[in-house]
Lrp/AsnC family transcriptional regulator for asnA, asnC and gidA
Amino acid sequence: MNQDYIEPLPQIDELDEKILRLITKNARIPFLEVARECGVSGAAIHQRVQRLLNLGVISGSEFVVNPAKLGYNTCAYMGVYLEKAKFHTQVAEALRKIPEIVECHYTTGQYAIFVKIQTKTNKHLKKLIDEELQEIEGIARTETFISLEMDFKRQVAIK
Amino acid sequence: MNQDYIEPLPQIDELDEKILRLITKNARIPFLEVARECGVSGAAIHQRVQRLLNLGVISGSEFVVNPAKLGYNTCAYMGVYLEKAKFHTQVAEALRKIPEIVECHYTTGQYAIFVKIQTKTNKHLKKLIDEELQEIEGIARTETFISLEMDFKRQVAIK
DNA sequence: TGTGAAATCATGATGTA
DNA sequence: TACATCATGATTTCACA
C-alpha cells in the first residue's frame, strides 16, 4: 500500500540531468558552453531547455538576492494557528499581501499554516506580528522562531 | 535602544533597484532589454550587475527546478532538539551531508536547528528520519510538519 | 560611469537519421 | 522525435573616453 499521490513524471534522460545540473547553478551560463560540456550542439541545449520549461521541470530563472545586503537582517519562521480550519484560504490571501512574507505553506501538525518572513530588524518583525498578522481575521495565534544564521540553502539534488 | 546588529549597506540607487527587479524575476533576460527599459547602455547594465555581484547583493543566478517533476513530492519542515547546545556545528555538518535537506538554520525558540526537507514520498521522509536523522550524534529528537501545499514563494521585495 | 566595436552567442529554418 | 548544421541578428565584453 502506498498512500502517497505521485504526479506523473516527465521522461528525463541523462543529458537532461547534466543540463539541469549546470543551469540550476548558473542561469546565465551560455548554452554553447553547456553544449560543449555535453558534447552536443547549442541548438540541442536550447531545445532541451525549452522542453524542460514546457514540462514544468524548471519554472524559470532568477538572480538570487542576499536580503541582508538590502537591509533585511531578520529571517524568521512562523507557525499560524487558525480559529477555524475553513479560514485557510482567506488567511493565506491576507498573508500574500504582506511583502515581508516570502513563503507560505499549508501544513499538517500543530500549525495550519507555516510561513517564512524577512524583515529589516527584530523590531520590524515584532511590529509586523503585532500590527499586521494578529489583525488578520481568522488567525488565532502565532509562534515564531527567528533564524540566527542560515547554515545552508540549496535546490533539490539532480540525481 | 536598538538591539539589532545591522550590517553596513551598499549604496543602491534607483537604477540598481530597477535592474534588480528585472533580473531577479528572469535571470536570462538580455541585458540589452534591461538597458532599454532603463534608458542606459547595455554595458552599463553589465557593469552594474557585476558590481552587485561583487558587493554580494546578488549571489548568483539559477534556473528554478520544480521538485515534484523530479519525483520529490513531499516537502517538510523539521525542528531539531539537541542533547547539548554545543553539538550545534557537528549536527549541522551531518545535516549538510544529507542531500534531501535543502535548507538549514540555527534558530531561537524551542528548536536549536530548523531544516527544510524534500523527499520523494512520505514514506521516504519517514525512512530518512528513522534511519538517518535519529542516528546523528547530538540530535535528541525532532518535530516534523509536512507541507500539504505551497501557497506561494518569492524573494524579498526590492523597495 | 558610460560608449562603441569586435567577439561571442541565441535562435529559427532546414535536412537527416 | 531528437539532433546537427548553418545563417542572421542580438548580445556580451573589453578597451578607451
